[in-house]
Amino acid sequence: MDRARPVTVRRSREPALWLLFSAGGTLAALGLPAVVFVLWVGPAVGWVAVPPHGTLSALLGGAGVRLVLFVVIALALYHWAHRFRYTLYDGLQLYHLHQLIATLTYGVATLLTVASAMVLFL
Amino acid sequence: MTNPAYRRFHPRWHRARIPIFWWLRKLSYTRFIVRELTSVCVAYTAILLLVQVWMVDAGPDRFERFTAWLASPVVTGVHVVVLVGLLFHTLTWLHLAPRALILRVGRWRVPGAAVLAGHYAAWLAVSGGVLWIVLGR
Amino acid sequence: MTVPQTVTVDVQRYRPEAERTPTWQRFEVPFQPEWMVLDALNYIKDHLDGTLSYRWSCRMGVCGSCGMMVNGTPSLTCATYLETLLPGPIRVEPLRGFPVIRDLVGDLSDFLTKLRRVTPWIVREIERPLADGEHLQTPDELAEFKRYSMCINCMLCYAACPIYELEPEFLGPAVIALAQRYNLDSRDEGQEGRTDVISQHDGIWACTFVGECSTVCPKDVDPAGAIQRYKLDAAVGWVRALALPFGSRKA
After folding, report:
1. Which of A31, C91, C133, C139 has the maximum number of C-beta atoms within 10 A of its C-beta?
2. What is the pLDDT of residues C120-145, one digit of tens each?
3. Chains contacting C with at least 3 CB pairs below 8 Å?
């Protein structure tokens, strides 16, 4: 056994960010295609009826609906932040700007999460 | 890339430069970048969903104008692209999940095909639920 | 299809004493249906140009020496039939991602340095005394890690991985797969130490699951799968450490 190894090695904080990415990615994968279809694409091409204001308003009044929407939106944003961050590192070779990119992506995700809390709950 | 301890002493070793658009040189790399860029479709959907809630809360008039905007051809075209992007995200995500998710029941390891089938079932269930909630009642 | 008499092979040459950048050299090599790319290279060296430098050894896909880029894909030249590459010309270059010492020979010392960091051997708190006999292991326990033990260190996965090319610090697919080989071995007790090295940005977190490493692996090791499993394990471990700060370490 390597006895020279220091007892406390600070591991990366990435696991937390990766969990947010994974949760957001899973929720997005399972739920968002249907959402886009039923709310935006389907009505526009005439495959489903346009959801009327009354229906949606009643839906949003239901118990827990706003909370579920908040969780889905927030996690989807953090999923984007994490994935887009790495796409910039690798796709455009911008790793040397990693501090700035991390701040911008997670910053935008956080700001929009706060905005969604305000829209949904205020 | 070489062991930095050696690099100084071997200036004549050739190191190829990586082009910025390295991901265009092979189809599998391009597919990878397209897969990663679907995260933009995810973010767009999340934000527009929020805007939709805002419009519903703002009352029938604002909502009507928003619905009219949604129905316009250009916007619909964008949304079709977004839907295709989201479907690509879903399919790639579902098929990669069994490689990461090793599940055990006691000593028996759940086969990857079962994990995949479970994910597809969940996708169907959630999609069906969304459709039913918005359209059915 | 008529069997051709010869096939064209374009080989990347690099002679640092004579040139500053690599050049191409074209050879006409006799075509035999049973020949591999390695046979073509050996023919070139034996009959056409004895100065060509390249690595090879077992010629049967177990030593990992003969990895090169064949038509842009990392391949074992001893396991790639010329027939599958007809009509040619066939392009042979050194493995991508590694500095080229000469012709088709790359420097692999980076991989070896990084491999040592993950202690790729059975690590135990206290060594089992000889008098106690062997470690006993069930077939199920062997099956846990057997796939990752198949790695022949051929480096094709590194040549396929764009992250390895882009980020010089990245440990790379084979190193992480080999770390998993020991982590999942029931005889090993070194997972904590390895995870300290691997759960870092230059370890699993730089990986974005491109998946090309597993596609090119000639031994079906699936390093991409090893890395993704490790991410999930590390993330779960992180949550557990948060929830139980004084929890017991893996025995």
Report:
1. A31
2. 999 999 988 999 999 999 999 999 99
3. A, B
